[in-house]
Write a structure and sequence with these properties.
With about 190 residues, the chain is mainly alpha-helical. It has 5 helices and no strands. It has helices at about 1-60, 65-80, 90-110, 115, 120-155.
């Protein structure tokens, strides 16, 4: 009888140990995946920030008197890749909202100059920027998916009883700071 009790206790300890091991490793994997996804977002933001000066210079040649627009775009571009903006998804989302507003102004200036819209360099830069925006959007979706999986695993019972003591915490989703700005589709005029 004593041996049976000992085997049951050893078996129970082994099952609990295996559960803790699997839970910890799963959380580590998800945490690294979220960090990787955040890194992907920052890489794409940097790529976009590198394209913007070329786009601004292309437009500047045609619209010399639109100085304020160029200054706003340049400032917004710098803000999106600043350490403060990359410190959290919320800060990054706010910088992104400001950047989109400045970029809208730049494209409004470009619309005012038909010869610019026919310029091959400008069109190429616009296509590159559009491609980069698509990659940023995909990176955000991947990041949010990783955050969702990590947060679910942290909140599930019985893991929720001990995972925070192991240093795991819920992560913040990348959300749009100004939902009203995206509530309506942009107006396109030809």
């Amino acid at each position: 009888m004593e041996n049976i009790t000992l085997f049951v206790v050893i078996g129970l300890v082994a099952v609990i140990g295996l559960y803790l091991w699997a839970t910890y490793n799963g959380l580590v994997r998800l945490n690294v995946r979220v960090d990787e996804a955040w890194s992907d977002i920052t890489v794409q933001l940097k790529r976009r920030a590198d394209l913007i000066p070329n786009l601004v210079e292309s437009v500047k040649g045609y619209a010399k008197h639109e100085k304020e627009v160029f200054e706003n775009v340049t400032a917004a571009r710098a803000a999106t890749v600043s350490p403060a903006a990359l410190s959290s998804p919320a800060a990054s989302a706010q910088a992104e909202g400001e950047f989109h507003q400045a970029l809208k102004s730049l494209f409004a200036v470009a619309e005012a100059y038909p010869q610019l819209q026919a310029n091959a360099g400008f069109l190429n830069l616009q296509a590159e920027l559009s491609d980069t925006e698509d990659k940023i959007m995909a990176s955000r979706r991947f990041y949010n998916g990783g955050v969702r999986e990590l947060n679910i695993k942290i909140k599930q019972f019985p893991a929720t009883l001990f995972v925070r003591s192991l240093g795991f915490k819920e992560r913040e989703f990348f959300e749009v700071a100004d939902a009203a700005a995206i509530a309506e589709a942009p107006e396109v005029k030809f």
